[in-house]
Amino acid sequence: MAVEQSIHILRQIRSRYVQAKLWLYMLQAIAVAAVGIAILYRWRFEVPALAFVAISMMVGAVLYFALRWRSVNKTSLQQVARHLNRQYPALEDSTEMLLHEPQNLLQRLQQQKVAGVLQELHPEKEKPYTLRSTASYVALGLALVLTAGILYLPAAPLPGPKQSPEVKITFPDAPAVAADTATTIEQIDITVTPPAYTGKKAYKADNPNLRVEEGATINWRIRTNRPAKALQLELNEQQAQAFKQDKAGYAFSRSFSQPTLYTINLNGQKSAFYTLETIPDEAPAIEISKPKEYTEIRLGEPQRVSLQAKLSDDYGIREANMIATVAKGTGEAVKFREEKMKLNLSGNSRSYSINQTLDLQKLGMSFGDELYFYLQAWDNHRGYTRSETFFVQIEDTTIVEASFDMTAGVNPVPEYFRSQRQIIIDTEKLLKEQKSISKAEFQERSNNIGVDQKLLRLRYGKFLGEEFESGIGPGGGIPEGAEGHEEAQHFEGDGHDHPEFENQNSPEALLDPYLHKHDQEGEATIFEPAVKAKLQGALAQMWEAELRLRTFKPKEALPFEYKALRMLKDVQQSQRAYVAKTGFEAPPLKEPELRLSGELNKITPLNERNSIEQKQQYPDTKAALNWLARYKQNGKYKPSDAALLERAGQELAQRAVNTPGQNLRALQDLRQLISEVRTGDKLCASCLATVERALTALLPPAAQTPQPKQVTRSKLVQEYMKQLGQ
């Protein structure tokens, strides 16, 4: 019974601790939420940034309290028992035994003893735990003061979203009537909705002169002080289109892809001319800095090409790739393979940079193959751009370069230079497979390639008159079998046929037995000295390559192999002979045999007459200029002259569509002149000058006609000419 009462005491202590802890956490959450509620109540959603902060504070306070609730509820009775052991030494660190069944008599006695001590101490009445609540109450107090300040104290209004200035429309033709009886525009809102490809949001214009994206939709919304009889929008002095009336006023919406001029017609009164310019969507720009338009990869160079380029667009690039075409073979046996390759793009959608390496071997290219590639990009609209075609070629060692002059090449020497290329291929293959084969196999294959290099060197040595291997290395030494050469001279002859002399007593006959006169290595050659020097250099490079192959260093031998191949190709090119081509001369035609003999008496010549009516350009503009000239002379005009100025204004408006900024002022002044002519007022002098300049510039330049040459002579010249005439 005592044990159960002790456990009940532990539960009471835990419950009181959890409640006190949650109360402090709730005070902290209320402090934060109160400030957020005050901000949201004071400014509501007028300032989006403050509304977001307020909502974040309230949501954060709720989440904070929920997490703390979950953490405090995990407090167990064992934690309470350990806390009581630290607070009351009389419990002898045995309070946890109340939560377990005793296993023996000693544990049961200790459990009963602890239960009795716990009932005597009454910890549930003394509050055995201590909580720091000062910080929570201070935070709550500060939050309440801040909340009161936000709600009740006067404060300057926070800056809201920037208000666009009011759009004003002027009516120069409107008569001066009482404001209470005239229909006027109280408010006009112009909303521009850019097309989807721009990625821009709709915005309000702050000026009736508009500059919008190509394909943008413009919505005019007008509110008048009283219902209007007619409210229309005129584009380029063409047929007016009426606004649609609704509860909020009048609205008109349309998309524009071309620049234009527009006016608003309110109850028959036209407003001033306003411009509507369109910003065209530009195609993507591609700028390639590497490689050059033509790149040739020489022997021994890595078969890789570095690609560096920049792609840019005014509104963003939707897709970009590279089209690569590999050409293999020559002549009629050439084959093409086209691949679409992805580009490593880095940057934002409006500006990408490309920096990647093209591995030609992965594209399946080899010696003599060619690569043609170009970049292409699409924007979000209809823009497409393709770069120039770039050309990459791997030098082919088996094809002799052709001459571009009018000659035909003839090669008198057979094709001897393919084996060195095979040695290079074997060496590169060995280097690639080095990690996958054993060391013994690697050394064996390297030595075998060195043997092949030696045999090839000996084979080319025959072209220089070397009939046998002359020692080790590229020069000198005693040839094989030379040790027995003297004995052969004494016993069996020297192995060569020596000429017989008619006079055996001549000096040549006496010295002939003691001379060895057969061809020497350095002289027995079919090549010229310059070509011979190149071939000797190639043999020296072969020897260097052989040395490193024999010592199991194929990587070091590869540059010498390439250099030897390049020299051999130069030797082959040097041995080509060129013969000038002869042109083909066609035999003379036999005119009597090939001449036509048909009769032409029934063939009538074509006789057609077309009358072309010459149409006068800008007739109303010319008439308006004549009217301006007459007005300058007499200063008189009639109200009916306004119609002439209206027609001239239409011609000027048609021309002003392409360049609205240049003729806008002239159109506005012309509108003012028309209004003054109709009302009979004095005409604006500056407006007359502006309109005259604009109409004069509108006319095409007059064609030049022949004029008699007028020469003004002085009196002395006239007297001289008179004397000559006598």
Give a verbal description of the structure.
The chain is α+β, with helices and mostly antiparallel strands. Helix content is 40%, strand content 18%. Strands 3, 5, 6, 9, 10 and 11 form a six-stranded mixed beta sheet that branches. Strands 13, 15, 16, 19, 20 and 21 form a six-stranded mixed beta sheet that branches. β7 (244-246) and β8 (249-256) form a beta hairpin. This is DUF4175 family protein. Keywords: Membrane, Transmembrane, Transmembrane helix. The chain crosses the membrane at residues 22-43, 49-67, 135-155. It comes from Pontibacter rugosus.
Set down the secondary structure blueprint.
Blueprint: H1 2-43, H2 48-72, H3 77-87, H4 105-121, H5 123-126, H6 134-152, E1 185-193, E2 203-204, E3 210-213, E4 216-224, E5 231-235, E6 241-242, E7 244-246, E8 249-256, E9 260-266, E10 269-270, E11 274-279, E12 285-290, E13 294-297, E14 304-312, E15 317-328, E16 335-341, E17 345-348, E18 351-359, E19 370-379, E20 384-386, E21 390-394, E22 407-410, H7 419-432, H8 439-461, H9 485-491, H10 507-511, H11 529-550, H12 554-574, E23 577-580, H13 591-594, H14 619-634, H15 641-656, H16 660-679, H17 685-698, H18 715-725
Helix pairs in contact: 1-2, 1-4, 1-6, 7-8, 7-12, 8-11, 11-12, 14-15, 14-17, 15-16, 16-17
Protein name: DUF4175 family protein
Keywords: Membrane, Transmembrane, Transmembrane helix
Transmembrane segments: 22-43, 49-67, 135-155
Question: Could you give a quick summary of the protein structure above?
Answer:
The chain is α+β, with helices and mostly antiparallel strands and 726 residues long. The chain is built from 18 helices and 23 strands.
